[in-house]
Amino acid sequence: FQQLLRAQLWPATSTQPSTAATFSLLHHFDILTSETSVSISGFHCALEQLTDNRLLSDIPLLRIVRQRQWVILCKRFGRRHIEAGLENIQPGELAVECIFCPQPSKNMPDGWEENAYMCAYNYVAECCIQL
């Protein structure tokens, strides 16, 4: 598995991979999906036509793309090196906390409950957020 990744190949399965996609192919797919409205099936059909019209229907391109996007998502949100592993990520753990949103234990003054109306007015006026 690590040898394939070092060779710039993304394996289709994690156990006994026999099919892989190059990193450049996945990069092209990322660019096309972000700049145009191409779907995975449209990209797959175009890929078939570019490669001598051979049938590539048994290549699990969608699985490869989803696995890669999941790993990149975990990497970008700092969850790659957690001890519990990527399988144990709870819902909401990949979300980044907004530093401007009022959070009572972090960025709100003590005793804000007593004057909650004025506190809410100040936060809306300063940050233009919804409470």
UniProtKB/TrEMBL annotation:
Superkingdom of the organism of origin: Eukaryota
The name this protein goes by in its record: CxC2-like cysteine cluster KDZ transposase-associated domain-containing protein
InterPro entries in UniProt: CxC2_KDZ-assoc
UniProt domain CxC2-like cysteine cluster KDZ transposase-associated: residue ranges: 2-53
